[in-house]
Amino acid sequence: KIYLVNNASVDTDNDDYPDAYVDTNHDGAIQITEATAVTNLYLNYYNATVSIVDFGGIQEFSNLRLLKSNITVDYSIVNSLSLLEVLDISSAHPSNLNLSGLTNLKSFICSNGSLVSLNLSGLPNLETLICRNNDLTTLNLAGLTNLKTIDCSYNALTSLNLSDQTNLVNLKCGYNLFTSLNLSQNTNLENLECYKFNGTSMNFPTLPHLKTIIFTGDSLLSIDVTQLNALESLECPYSGNLNVLTLGNKPFLKTLYCSGGNIDLLDISNANNLENIYCTDNNLTALNVANMPNLT
């Protein structure tokens, strides 16, 4: 209560920054009517004049749709906020989290924390999951069929099962420990970023909408993007052991960045719309750029 009385915690002009107080009548207390009138709540430790030690009473904010907090407290009580659609607890450092009661949740962000386990079961409407830079070793995404954006980079994941994410559009999954990545069910994928992949090869399946790829790894020996007919940008730089890069027919490819590898043969003859190519620091002795009118 003291925090809410003394700090602006409500955003009234939709600029994602709190500009108003929950205590609208300025009596030094938070009435239930004031709590239920709030649909978004920002609890920012860095700008606070007093600290928060627990979330007792948060359940009275029963109409909350958005909650942003970097306060280090027990977040289990948040499960009572059944209308919540956006939850951002980046830098809040919970170690375990169960969100199974938030059936309306569409976006969950918990970057830069200390999570070792995350229960996402019972979240049928979840579309965005950003859990980068934590300590997760497993991530169970079963049943989360509406996910469109995932960023699970900078964890310790030993595997990543995306078989239920048929609507996935954006994926960032670099700096983990897994040695294989199966994208065969992710036919709506458009953007992929995976730095420091630990496998030795990546043969992309048919992904008709995939346009941009960043894919690197110290152990990578080969990358095959033959089946990616919509590809516009491919970046796989400084993958020092990469010696086979198979492009196939790439009529839409505009940018190719494969410097710092071990490639001795690169066929770009079917990528006639290339505008930018960076392939220095390989073992190439020749590169045929004939019929490349757009190269700069």
Tally the beta strands.
17
Report the sheet with the most strands, covering strand number, pairing sense and barrel closure: 12 strands, parallel
Mean pLDDT score: 94
**Helix-and-strand structural type:** mainly beta
Number of helices: 2
Side-by-side strand order of the widest sheet: 1-2-3-5-7-8-9-10-12-14-16-17
Radius of gyration: 23 Å
Q: Given the C-alpha coordinates, what overall shape results?
A: elongated
The span between the termini is 61 Å
| Beta content | 15-25%
- Return the string of H and E elements: HHEEEEEEEEEEEEEEEEE
* Spans of at least 5 consecutive residues with low confidence: none
What fraction, in percent, of the residue positions are helical?
A: under 10%
Explain the layout of strands and helices:
Elements: H1 2-6, H2 32-36, E1 40-43, E2 66-69, E3 86-88, E4 96-98, E5 107-109, E6 117-119, E7 128-130, E8 149-151, E9 170-172, E10 191-194, E11 201-203, E12 212-215, E13 222-224, E14 233-235, E15 244-246, E16 255-257, E17 276-278
Parallel strand pairs: 1-2, 2-3, 3-5, 4-6, 5-7, 7-8, 8-9, 9-10, 10-12, 11-13, 12-14, 13-15, 14-16, 16-17
Structure notes:
There is one protein chain. The protein has helices at residues 2-6, 32-36, and strands at residues 40-43, 66-69, 86-88, 96-98, 107-109, 117-119, 128-130, 149-151, 170-172, 191-194, 201-203, 212-215, 222-224, 233-235, 244-246, 255-257, 276-278. With 296 residues, it is mainly β. The strands form three sheets. It has a twelve-stranded parallel β-sheet, with no helix packed on it. Strands 11-13-15 form a three-stranded parallel β-sheet, with no helix packed on it. It starts with a helix and ends in an 18-residue tail after the last strand.
